[in-house]
Amino acid sequence: MGQGNKGLSGVRERIAKIVEDVDSLPSLPSIVMKLIEVVNSSDSAAEDAAELIEKDPALTSKMIRLANSAFYGIPRSISSVTSAVVVLGFNTIRSLVLSASVAKMFDGKHSLDMDRFWKHSVVTAMASKIIVRHLMSVRMMDPESAFCAGVLHDIGKLIFSQYMAEDYNAVCEYARTKKLPLIEVEEKVLGVNHARMGKILADRWSLPLDLEYAIVHHHDPENADKASHLANIIHLADLISHDLGCDMWEGEVHMQECVKCRAELKIGDADYEKIMTNIESSLDKSQEFLAILK
Fold it and tell me: In CATH terms, is domain 5-26+109-293 a member of 3.40.50.300?
């Protein structure tokens, strides 16, 4: 990249400082932390979640808009947060709340094109949800947990993009001009990739283990000794999103599909074609979720 050893050392020192000074990274708002606790508790009722959401006018507005959007296609009008929680379900609420919170926390100056970043994330999330629904006869999984993991899978890029914008811009430009996968250039120049950086935020935010493993292992699902099924789903959905042109930049080169991914998920060629058809027909809906997210 035209950097000498001194320059490379400086970049890695900045990375090490971010990792060491983890308290300087954004924490989830207390209302979001409490809401996640409510969602994860078997003793919680819709009214408990609604009471928290209603304390945040912006979140209330997003919740009502989502419940009435074509994205979920609910046949009746939803006017209260409690009704929205009942109809959408706790895990959908978790997806929206985490997505909206992350978008708000990282709304500063970035080296990445944030419109493209969020489009890639949301299309990956939609693809993940569709894959899970296709696999329901094989293995019971929650589509909304997969959606949430899809939205959050690249959060490590946000750390790079906001906290070391100039360095990361150079990394992205090198990957673009040399036609190399971004994750390879991250490893080479920064000494750590965005998936590993994502673990820092997942730990700081106390995200559920399945979400953390999907974030950390979406490029190497074979190394996910826990929640490997979800990691494989996010891996495949991520690649599908790229294949559909939802990249960080035009013509971005990405990693090859893990050899065992489809075999692990029991997805044959005919299954894959059906999944792709469903995802392609759902792309327009992603724009609505993006509009609500922002």
Answer: no
What one-character-per-residue DSSP string does 170-204 give? HHHHHHHHHT--HHHHIIIIISS-HHHHHHHHHHH
CA distance 243 to 45: 40
Nearest to 125 by CA among 209, 54, 214: 214
According to DSSP, residue 131 is labeled H
Tracing tokens 């790079």 back to the chain, one arrives at 160
What value, to the nearest 5°, has the Cα angle with vertex 121 and ends 116 and 123?
95
pLDDT over 90, % of the chain: 56
77 residue type, one letter: S
What Å distances lie between residue 133 and 26, 184, 264, 275, CA to CA? 33, 32, 16, 9
The band of 1, judged by pLDDT with boundaries at 50, 70 and 90, is: low
pLDDT-based confidence at residue 11 (cuts at 50, 70, 90): confident
pLDDT digits (tens, 9 = 90+) for 260-292: 999 999 999 999 999 999 999 988 888 888 888
- Give the dihedral of Cα atoms 246, 126, 274, 142; nearest 10 deg: 150
pTM: 0.91
Alpha carbons 199 and 293: distance in angstroms, whole number: 23
